[in-house]
Design brief:
The complex is a heterodimer of chains A (376) and B (47).
Chain A: H1 7-30, E1 43-48, E2 64-69, E3 72-80, H2 88-100, E4 102-111, E5 131-136, E6 139-144, E7 161-163, E8 169-171, H3 190-205, E9 209-216, E10 225-228, H4 233-245, E11 251-254, H5 263-270, E12 274-281, H6 294-299, H7 303-310, H8 325-346, E13 353-356, H9 360-366
Parallel strand pairs in A: 3-4, 3-9, 9-12, 10-11
Antiparallel strand pairs in A: 1-2, 2-4, 4-13, 5-6, 7-8, 10-12
Helix pairs in contact in A: 2-8, 4-8, 8-9
Chain B: H1 2-22, H2 26-45
Helix pairs in contact in B: 1-2
The chains are: A alpha/beta (376), B mainly alpha (47).
Chain lengths: 376, 47
């Protein structure tokens, strides 16, 4: 039997899909609104990257820059979080610093959302949730889970092969990966302009040390790692010894000299800064994971990772306790703190030191919530 | 470039809406209306 359509049924069906489109579209566009980050006690100025590179003004790639200053003069340190918006501990570590840390000496320049466009979408075919949330004493606070790359709405189409400014040949989609686009190009693709902007910030602010905070899959060899350029290797080695005493396992990896376009290589080659990239293990990003839920992002518990760990296939310790976000943030913050203290003791006139920072002991004791209440 | 996509999307949307109204088979009308959703989402996505 055949149902007959009339003009009225057509209009009815179209109105129904219009209604569905309205709600779907509204939920979709919600992804575009950046969640607030609150300036903490030592934030003296909130700028934009376009203040350093005017070419970024008015584009979707103009991240906020938080300038923090301590009581006493000292050196300058740069912290970049959110290069890859699907690596939440890198982003949240930067947010935790901006909202909580106080400085004794020196200046700290922090960008929590290095690639703002990457925070406006999730990666296709990954089944990622749009949001995850952290319980705080003042209620639940939600954060965006984004994509490793710039939103194709902002930069499209991709070539078949991306040859970056250093001649490195990469898969075409890597043209939207900030951490393959250094040193960037003022007149290049949007992501290259962003990379250029970050280089400009480093050139103008001349930080002694620059951190790029990341996460990686638990089955990837470069996890629980400090990746250092030759210039920063001594610093990283000393800090690693201190971290060993705290039972934080961070391996040392040297930045490969022939892999070009990456922060720890290009920042080191082209500026006076000492680049350091940190990696913590993130099960919500790995290939072995099961269902990708907001809980997996926050608690890091996954039965497939557990069975991989029992077979000795992971490059990190993994138990049924999972890999909670607060531990991964603690690992980042403690490593930053150790590297700054090693640097400050050998360069007292350029010292940058924290008065207060939620480090391993505090995060172990209280969890992440009390440091993300949004009000200081 | 994006303005070209926006024009194409709007044109396709109009085409789908017209075909849906003209189609006399109810199931085809329903499919036409469903096709309309991604087209509309696509035009929402483009700034
Ligand atoms: Zn990364």
């Amino acid at each position: 039997m055949k149902f007959k359509g009339t003009k009225y049924s057509a209009i009815g069906l179209l109105s129904l899909s219009l209604l569905l489109s309205f709600f779907a579209g509204r939920s979709f566009l919600e992804m575009r609104n950046p969640k607030p980050i609150f300036a903490g006690p030592d934030v003296k100025e909130v700028k934009h990257l376009s203040d350093y590179a005017p070419v970024l003004a008015g584009t979707p790639e103009d991240p906020r820059v938080y300038v923090m200053e301590g009581e006493q003069k000292g050196g300058t340190v740069f912290i970049l979080g959110g290069t890859h918006p699907n690596e939440p501990a890198g982003f949240l570590s930067a947010v935790t610093i901006v909202e909580n840390a106080t400085l004794e000496r020196g200046r700290l320049i922090v960008i929590p959302r290095a690639n703002p466009s990457g925070f406006t979408h999730t990666q296709p075919l990954e089944g990622s949730p749009q949001f995850f949330s952290v319980k705080t004493p003042k209620g639940t606070r939600s954060f965006r889970f984004g994509s490793r790359r710039t939103n194709p709405i902002h930069q499209w189409p991709d070539p078949n092969v991306y040859v970056n400014k250093e001649g490195q040949k990469l898969a075409g989609f890597e043209i939207r990966n900030l951490n393959r686009s250094y040193p960037g190009d003022k007149r290049g693709y949007l992501t290259e302009k962003l990379a250029y902007g970050i280089m400009e910030l480093i050139r103008k602010e001349k930080p002694q040390i620059s951190f790029d905070l990341h996460e990686s899959s638990p089955e990837y060899p470069v996890t629980n790692a400090i990746v250092a350029h030759e210039k920063s290797m001594e610093l990283a080695t000393m800090a690693k010894l201190n971290l060993d005493l705290l039972d934080i396992d961070m391996k040392l990896e040297s930045s490969p000299a022939n892999l070009r376009g990456i922060s720890h290589r290009e920042w080191g080659e082209r500026t006076t800064t000492n680049p350091i990239l940190l990696e913590t293990p993130n099960p919500s990003q790995g290939r072995l994971r099961g269902e990708t839920t907001a809980d997996l992002i926050v608690e890091g518990k996954d039965k497939y990772y557990l069975s991989a760990a029992n077979k000795g296939l992971l490059f990190t310790d993994y138990t049924e306790k999972g890999l909670p976000l607060e531990l991964r943030v603690a690992q980042h913050l403690q490593t930053v703190e150790e590297i700054l203290s090693v640097f400050s003791s050998s360069n007292p006139e350029k010292a940058v030191s924290f008065k207060k920072i939620p480090d391993l002991s505090k995060l172990n004791e209280k969890g992440l919530g009390p440091f993300l209440t949004g009000i200081n | 470039m994006q303005i070209v996509y926006r024009i194409i999307t709007i044109a396709l949307t109009i085409l789908v809406v017209r075909n849906t109204v003209e189609e006399e088979d109810l199931s085809r009308q329903a499919i036409g209306a469903l096709v309309f959703i991604p087209l509309l989402l696509r035009s929402l996505m483009i700034k």
